[in-house]
Amino acid sequence: MNKEKLRVGVIGVGYLGRFHAMKYAAMDDVQLVGVVDTDPLRAQTVAEECSTKAFADHQPLLEQVDAVSIVVPTVYHHTVAMTCLENGVDILLEKPMTTTLEEADDLIALADRKNLMLQVGHLERFNPAVLAMQPLLNNPLFIEAHRLTTFKNRGTDVDVILDLMIHDIDIILSIINSPIQDIHTVGAPVITQLTDIANARIVFKNGCTANITVSRISMENVRRMRIFQPGKYLAVDFGKKEVMAIKLKQGAQSGIPLPDVSRHGFSDQDVLEMEIREFVNNIRHRLKPTVSGREGRRALAVALSVIGQIRENQEQFRHLLGQEGNFGFINEP
């Protein structure tokens, strides 16, 4: 692709989509052609904020752009993404990429057939802490991850596994080069009808075990991971965008082993901007994304396995939810 401005659009400008639009609008080598939303007022507000055009439907926009970010509710990912690919448009599709593996396979096959970009928005892969930990990794043996957030109304169209846990699943799969041997899970709905708190213990065939806990009903926001490996462990703080590496060294005077701590990271980097900038660069040079459709599908497959197992387990305590199967959930039908 030449050096002319890349023509882009954003489909879905709710909370996260608005930030996509703002990042594109600020780029010198990109023309934000327009934004789309089913809420006309929201589309117009974001369009004015980003000095672009508002669309009520994405089809007219696709005739004017080279690429789009798709930031609509997950249940619409497959339909919208298929339309974009059929129109020859490269896509950055927010996570989780689809609701089923069959839908994910549809998108991958179509993108391959038309030689189009299918990048999946696993934002944490661009977190400076994740980038900083890569050269520090050495045969991880045990991984412990906690991703806890206070309750927010957005994101409740999917359960906490697809909302939050899939981030850690994707990161762990990217650093452990081994098939999964077994998964053990537990989870429960608390204030919505979907699972709000969950734990998954993933055992890999090479002996590594990952223990992941997620909750969207916490009193505080926590995004941390600890990686234990021979001679060293890494404490990764996604919020602070920092990695603390700890190992033991001999004390200069006493000879007693003392902790040797080093810190790594780049806290001033904008994670979303890095992801979108990579998307633009990938389009221009036809490069493989850090998180392609296949990586997105891989994380989705594990997440869906976790969800299926939790649902089976929940049937065993369905009686605790009351005769009608709920106890005052938010978003009851």
Largest sheet strand order: 8-9-10-7-11-12-13-14
Give the CATH superfamily of the largest domain.
Dihydrodipicolinate Reductase, domain 2
The number of helical elements comes to: 9
CATH level 3 topology of the largest domain: Dihydrodipicolinate Reductase, domain 2
Percent range for β-strand residues = 25-35%
CATH class of the largest domain: Alpha Beta
From the N-terminal CA to the C-terminal CA, the straight-line distance is 49 Å
Q: How would you describe the shape?
A: globular
Domain GFO/IDH/MocA-like oxidoreductase: 158-227
GO molecular function: nucleotide binding
Protein name: Putative dehydrogenase
Domain Gfo/Idh/MocA-like oxidoreductase N-terminal: 6-122
Summarize the structure.
Pfam families: GFO_IDH_MocA (PF01408), GFO_IDH_MocA_C3 (PF22725). Residues 158-227 form the GFO/IDH/MocA-like oxidoreductase domain. This protein is α/β, with parallel strands linked by helices and 333 residues long.
Secondary structure blueprint with pairings:
Elements: E1 6-11, H1 15-25, E2 30-36, H2 40-49, E3 53-55, H3 58-62, E4 67-70, H4 77-86, E5 90-94, H5 101-114, E6 118-121, H6 128-133, E7 142-148, H7 160-175, E8 180-188, E9 197-204, E10 209-215, E11 222-229, E12 232-237, E13 242-250, E14 257-265, H8 271-285, H9 293-314
Helix pairs in contact: 4-5, 5-9, 7-9
